[in-house]
Fold this sequence. Notes:
This protein has 562 residues and is of the alpha/beta class. The chain folds into four domains: 157 residues, 3-Layer(aba) Sandwich (Rossmann fold), CATH 3.40.50.1390; 127 residues, Hect, E3 ligase catalytic domain fold (Alpha-Beta Complex); 128 residues, no CATH class; 76 residues. The protein is built from 17 helices and 20 strands. Helix 14 packs antiparallel against helix 15. It starts with a strand and ends in an 8-residue tail after the last strand. 23% of the residues are buried. The C terminus is likely disordered. InterPro entries: DNA_bind_recomb_sf, DNA_bind_recombinase_dom, Recombinase_CS, Resolv_N, Resolvase-like_N_sf, SSR_resolvase, Zn_ribbon_recom_dom.
Amino acid sequence: MIRLPGDRQFGHEYSTQELTHLMTSIQAVIYARVSTQDQARHGYSLESQIARSRELLKTKYNIADEFVLAVVEQGEMGDDPNRPALNQALWLVEQGIGNKFVVLHPDRLARDLKLQLFITERIWNAGCDIVFVEMDVDPNNPESLLLYNIQGAIAQYNKAKILANSKRGRRAKVMNGKIPGVRRVYGYSFDKTNDTLVVNEVERDVYLMMVDWLLRGKDGRPMTLTSVARELSLLGIPAPNGDKWYQATVSRIVKNPVYTGTFYYGKTECRQRAGRKEIVKKPVHEWQTVPVPAYIDEKTFDELQERIALLGRRNRGAKPKASYLLKGLARCGRCGAAVVAGAPSRDKQTGEPIYRYYTCSGKGRKIFEVGTGRQVHRCSGRNWRQDVVDDYVWRYVSECLWHAQDALKQIFGQRSEAVRLTELQTRRQRLVAALAEKREERKRWLQLAAKGRIDDSELDEALGPLKRDLADLSAQLRQLEQELASLTAAGRPERVEAAIASFRRFLHDGIAESEKKQLVDALIRKVVLRDDVIEIYTAWSGVVPSASRSKNANAGQGDGGL
């Protein structure tokens, strides 16, 4: 018996000699199908379908195995008209290969009545007989055809009924406060007895640490999704699936609203169309909720999402050659689109840039009206001088911070002493544990070298990254120890005043462009650029530098070189 997998392309891969050989030697084509990838991997029922088909051909038609060709379909749905193995088998019989098309049962051929009739017509039109192991079909007998069609309708009904019952059962389970099975949710363990999520204390602490890093930074430096993934890997914290932390994994975790105490079920719906699954988003009012242990509140979650969105905007696109203070923060006051770095004006003789500009991204949009072809929704207006805008925004920020004592206290002293101390002690424990693990790993490599199991080059290759990790972790631990000592030795009011005084000296003595950008990112929510007005929206609340700058927005600049 010849067995062909369903992934072989039919038609052009067969030579004339192959086709001639198959036409003269093959008397029957067996088609076998399983519907899930799990069945395909383990071969469930495929072998039995082929074995029973071969037995029927031997006993009823006296066709030996050497005159039989089997085509197998792995992991395809019965209502899919574009199954590779099915198309291959149909093409073969249409070329005159075999006079019998053998299938275990009609539902292996199709689970859709319309598709079943279409496939049947193709086989009969090719001059080939359809043979089902578990059912007889006679094209010349009206009663036989009626039963055949009824069976196809029943198969289609059964599939739809099973899907409907499964959905209804899952919805009923959710209404009773249970979760009908769920993928891995980091920070929780699934309680199979009660069908719900319970606290995983180790992963919960890691999640809270990730949130803190993204909102407040780590060791005085801002954190991105990528840097969070790297730090988790460096600390030896196990990843959700496997031994690697990916930026996408961190992103998926911190964007999940489940940590606010609500598990949402039914946000999407899987529909099958022509055998293909299609994920469709459902309206919010149709979502079902199940209460689970909460790790953060709604306000913190909203702040986290805003921070993530801001990181995405600031890191988008190519890095400009010049420093643009408002990259990722500016919006166009004319159309609301993002403001980006535009083309500079250049000296006609040397080609060197004279002035750099901010430009509205809406100017380059290409949207056309149906019917007329007219271009619409395109922003029109002049660009904004980058040096003028950046200078104005920076002077405004500096003035606010220089005179706003309350704002600085809010910025430097947002969190209580006890909470901060607990967090630092927890981080210290993690660093000590990570250091101990790295040192043990280094000891194991040295023991292997001492026993002669690895050579010097292999030892050097292994110890190089370990040495860097140990140095990095040790530096972090030293810095953390200093911060702990400072926190326990000094009182909070004096430290806040000292921080404010240090910050003012910092502003007075000068600041680098990169440091300006970091401060503006931390203190400005957005800047709206209009034709003759700049509106600045700050990140703090309740602080109004002067009466002319109300509602946390500042307008000014006139034309001023814009």
